[in-house]
Specification:
mainly alpha
Amino acid sequence: MTRLRTPFLAAALFTGVAAVGLTPALAQTAPGPVNSTAAPSEARHHAMERMMPGQLVDGRIAFFKAELKITPAQETQWQQVETAMRENAKNLDQTVTTAR
């Protein structure tokens, strides 16, 4: 019993020491920006880069059409879905523009 306990305690002690020794290295953070006034302008810049829903709608329509495997027989009904999606995206674009 003592033979089994000694290696187990040694392994536990080694693991604890290793964990404490590595903790400061993991807790370090990257240095902040040198110019603190640049951060708000960068955030505003990235907000302006966001695409409007109307810019993404054609890709979404193509994706849905491919995933749903629309057949030529279903194409006439699919045109109505496309029109509805484009109208919704246009309305959402107007709402987002108004909110900004």
